[in-house]
Amino acid sequence: MLTRQQSELDRLKEAFDLLGVNACHWCHKYYRRAEPGALFDAGGKLVCYACIPKWWPQCCAQLSAKEREDLEGKLVFWLKATHNAEIFKDSTKLPDSSLQELHLVAQCLECRGTGKSLGEDTCRFCTGRGTVWVIVSRKQA
Ligand SMILES: [Zn+2]
Ligand SMILES: [Zn+2]
Questions:
Q1: Separation of 40 CA from ligand 1 center, angstroms?
Q2: Which bound ligand lies closest to the C-alpha atom of 107?
Q3: In 1-141, which ranges are continuous DSSP H helix?
Q4: How far is the CA of 117 from the centre of ligand 1 (A)?
Q5: Considering only CA atoms, which of 76, 95, 91, 93 is closest in space to residue 140?
Q6: What's the pTM value of the predicted model, to 2 decimals?
Q7: Per-residue model confidence as pLDDT tens digits over 8-31
Q8: What is the pLDDT of residues 54-80, one digit of tens each?
Q9: Nearest ligand by distance to the CA of 89
Q10: Is 134 helix (H, G, I), strand (E, B) or coil?
Q11: Residue 122: helix, strand or coil by DSSP?
Q12: How far is the CA of 3 from the centre of ligand 2 (A)?
């Protein structure tokens, strides 16, 4: 009985695959793969945009520093490319929280979180904090 259900499930998965839809690893909702910004490929696991804020902190906790750095870079790039995410280095410049659709704190990629650029100067991309804010603003209706 169980094997039969399993094969049914496998066939369903194949069918969804043919249709170009994939399930979010986190909430298990189905999304169209081709839709830009719908699903983030976290190294073989697909996570939908809506789940990113909940999924990312938990995912981070399971990664090594190196893995986190790689995946975070990829995530920030994806958010910029598909959701017009903006990078802020100054918290006073952030849009009002009611206007923020997504809010992440990421390691500064320019100084790799050290806050210093080569030659011991303060990193100008994060003003020495080592982290930056990644914000997706709510679409204005
Ligand atoms: Zn999801
Ligand atoms: Zn920096």
A1: 10
A2: 2
A3: 2-19, 52-61, 65-83
A4: 37
A5: 95
A6: 0.85
A7: 988 988 888 889 999 999 999 999
A8: 999 999 999 999 999 999 999 999 999
A9: 2
A10: strand
A11: strand
A12: 52
- Determine the distance separating the centroid of ligand 2 and the alpha carbon of 133, expressed in angstroms: 12
How far lies 20's CA from each of 17, 33, 37, 120, in Å? 5, 6, 14, 49
C-alpha 121 – ligand 1 centre gap (Å): 41
Q: How far is the CA of 34 from the centre of ligand 1 (A)?
A: 16
Expressed in angstroms and rounded, the spacing between residue 137 Cα and the centre of ligand 1 is 19
Query: Helix 65-83 vs helix 52-61: angle between axes, to the nearest 10 degrees?
Result: 160
Mean pLDDT of the chain: 92
Q: How far is CA 82 from the centre of its chain?
A: 11
| Domain residue ranges of the chain, discontinuous segments joined by + | 1-48, 63-141
pLDDT in tens, 108-137: 988 989 999 877 789 999 999 999 999 999
